[in-house]
Amino acid sequence: MNTQGILEKPPYAVIAILFTGAFVSLINETLLNVALPSIMKDFEVSPSTVQWLSTGYMLINGILIPASAFFLQKFSNRQLFITAMSLFTAGTVLAAFSPTFWVLLVARMIQAAGSAIMAPLLMNVILVSFPVERRGTAMGVFGLVMITAPAIGPTLSGWLIEHYSWRTLFELVIPIAAFTLVLAIFKLKNILPQKKITLDIFSLILSSIGFGGILYGFSSAGEKGWDSVHVYAPIIVGTASLILFILRQLKLEEPLLEFRIYKYPMFALSSAISIVISMAMFSAMLLMPIYIQTIRSISPFHSGLLMLPGAIVMGIMSPITGRLFDKFGARILAVIGLSITIYTTYLFSHLTMETSYEYLMFLYALRMFGMSMVMMPVMTNGINQLPQSMNPHATAMNNTLQQVSGAVGSAFLVTLMQNRTEAEAERLAKEAASDPAVMADPNAMNDIMNQAMLNGINFSFKISVLIALVALVLAFFIKRVKPETEADLRKSAS
């Protein structure tokens, strides 16, 4: 390593192995969503029960990702990856052959325990492998994994479910996961620096209750409603635990998650922008399938297919955006990208019953093009201000906040959509009651509900425009930065 803690030569073989592991674990997050109705039918469980296959996976991630900073400093990248990949592979095998729903749920949680460490581990290896002036290109490739893998999941899943059993989703992943694990055992080397640190158990408990409670509460809001004890109780307990967790971290010499990184203004700004973007991004990812499948009665496969060009655009653009970041910095990319995102989101707020499939596909791809210019450049610019020793905490913080803001954004937008739908349904039903010709139509009530839901979706997209506008305003304050060295840190401390 050089004086800045950067490796003299990037370990491309190590990065390739971690890249494969992260890709297969991240694609697994969204692979199961389209298959939930089939699993519900096979195991004869309710929608609220089957939803735990997604919610449980997210909760385990939300609990373990904050602790990833500790794991990354305490253990070697070889130990971590082999352990994580072993858990993920074991969970995948168990899921493929699970005889009951509850065995499948346990298998998904084992998968999640392995998956949680993959992205932070890969990001930290990239950060110590490349100097700041080449980091954008490297993080662009990382963005290829982070964004493209979850986006491809629904399309692949939709096609497989139409032709095969839902178990095929796991059977397909087993050989790739097993091969990656064997490759890691024989080829993976240690490159991350390690420290002798101890785990503060109380911090881990507070973190688990805090992030887990908030994620569970907001994730349940769309289904159970905000007045349900299953929603507000976890959010209240989670928020209180999170406040205690933060106060404790500020007092510890070796915190589980270092909140002092927010004294660096560009990292704080990048976090704020990332939170806002994550909330806005979920509008299209969440609302589009509802519009396409429920209102327009388009098949799950074609629903996933509609989003595929957007995933491909992001995949192509991610490394290109990384190079542009190295050359021009994050501000101009973020401003252009957010302007495209805001414009396309505004167009999405004017959907009709006749909006063409091709137009939707083009608009979604254009929106993803805008998004590809924002997330990784903004995040990388924030991390670039931090000294190398704080990278594990930065990646853990970014990944945790994305999980939480995604859940909050989803719940918020779904609630807005449902409230607007109910109000519009009531209004349209009153109008229809005064027209005997409409009431005589047997499909009238169904048409009213579809129109009400469409109005609700359009309203949620309009709110997403306002959320994204906040990110655009913040983007104008982005400045290009260089990291502090450890010598600078010691100087400022003295």
TrEMBL record:
Keywords: Cell membrane, Membrane, Transmembrane, Transmembrane helix, Transport
GO CC annotations on file: plasma membrane
Domain of life the protein comes from: Bacteria
Domain annotation Major facilitator superfamily (MFS) profile: ranges: 14-486
Localization of this protein: Cell membrane
Family: Belongs to the major facilitator superfamily. EmrB family.
Protein's membrane topology: Multi-pass membrane protein
Protein name, entry field: EmrB/QacA subfamily drug resistance transporter
PROSITE patterns: MFS
Transmembrane stretches, start-end: 12-32, 52-72, 84-104, 110-132, 139-160, 166-186, 198-218, 230-247, 267-292, 298-316, 328-349, 361-380, 459-478
Pfam family, one: MFS_1
Major subcellular site: membrane
SUPFAM superfamilies from the UniProt entry: MFS general substrate transporter (SSF103473)
